[in-house]
Amino acid sequence: MSGHHAVVVGGGLAGVTAALRLADAGLRVTLLEGRPRLGGLAFSFRRGDLTVDNGQHVYLRCCTAYRWFLDRVGGTDLAPVQDRLDVPVLDAAGPRGARLGRLRRTALPVPLHLAASLATYPHLSPAERLGVGRAALALKALDPADPALDATDFAGWLARHGQSRRAVEALWDLVGVATLNATAARSSLALAATVFKTGLLSDPGAADIGWARAPLGHLHDTLARRALEARGARIAVRTKVTAVTPADGGRWVVDVPGDSLEADTVVLAVPQREAHGLLPPGALDAPGDLLRIGTAPILNVHVVYDRPVLRRPFFAAIGSPVQWVFDRTGPSGLRGGGQYLAVSQSAAGDEIDASAADLRARYLPELERLLPPARHARVEDFFVTRERTATFAPAPGVGRFRPGTRTRVPGLYLAGAWTATGWPATMEGAVRSGFTAAGAALSALGRPHVHPLEEAA
């Protein structure tokens, strides 16, 4: 093992990935995390006999970095991907109850892989379906790296390309809100173009959906710890870093309560405001830009019924406050014949501080409207989880505030989904940032390394 010591501050997906890559390269690694667990904002907790994920997280087949992460920690089989994209979409606005449509792909090449599904999608008129196809081709021609796209809002671009309010609700925001954590009106065109080009317009199978069939804590904490410890990494949880200071000889001192560590390399893999507080003077040209990266909330409503009310593993909804609903019965460990549904609500700024009673009065009738069997079921448990700063806000112009991984001070690197990954705030973006930070650190130390995605290629 190398004599070089790397300290990674932050045990979310970005920090764990950076630590794994550095340990795999032979460095001595210490991972410091202020919480009592790894996994960042994609974690699990116990509620009585249930194991509850704080929120529903999914990924796509095109998320090659997160898929590498799953493989590296031995969790691929626990979070499989659909054989082919298939999203049931319920429109709750109809007079005779919810109407089902599906967004599915075939094996045909892009963009024909979605043509049959779009042609029969009942939630859009024939003219709207044709308009969506034309807008998709125009979107495919965009370069997300163009700075002009970052300054442009997605909704304005959609309007200029003939997209009706109905098309935005039934298709563009259906996908965009879940992946960007913002409506089209509050989303950078550059980030929206990344999502739609990569997920829907790059490869026929790119948008096939994967999600965990085990608790997120098992993947992101238990298995991640096991993988890190197998490579000799030291993990310290409940350990909040208070200062990161340059020392003589290009080394670093990382202070924690009652102790300090010396390091050759430090990766700050913490939220942007926390990173701003730890950066030494001169580390960034404009450190205040980190404080200009806004945040966006995600709300999850959890309902346990006394019987099954949903036959599918998940569905999306339009014409309703409900966005996406997932069956979490198996992963939660629920027994006794009931069913546990998680209602995932992105871009939840209007509801993030609502009381559980108000949310119960709002969402239980909506679930009954969408799922007729729920009208005859008893609610055994109802609770809410809230992440007020779940992601960075993908607002137009945010790209100019997102820093790269390298700072102006040798040996100090940044990681996190909020850094300049080119991706929105997803698990994929977080893991990619960890790759980039570890790669930059290894290059500076003169350590040969191969990017894991290049290895897979």
Automatic annotation (TrEMBL):
Keywords: Oxidoreductase. Gene3D superfamilies: FAD/NAD(P)-binding domain. GO terms for molecular function: oxidoreductase activity. Residues 13-441 form the Amine oxidase domain. Substrate binds at residue 241. The keyword Oxidoreductase applies. Its cofactor is FAD. The keyword Cytoplasm does not apply. PANTHER family: BLR3003 PROTEIN, PROTOPORPHYRINOGEN OXIDASE. This is Phytoene dehydrogenase. It comes from Streptomyces roseolilacinus. The lineage of its organism: Bacteria, Bacillati, Actinomycetota, Actinomycetes, Kitasatosporales.
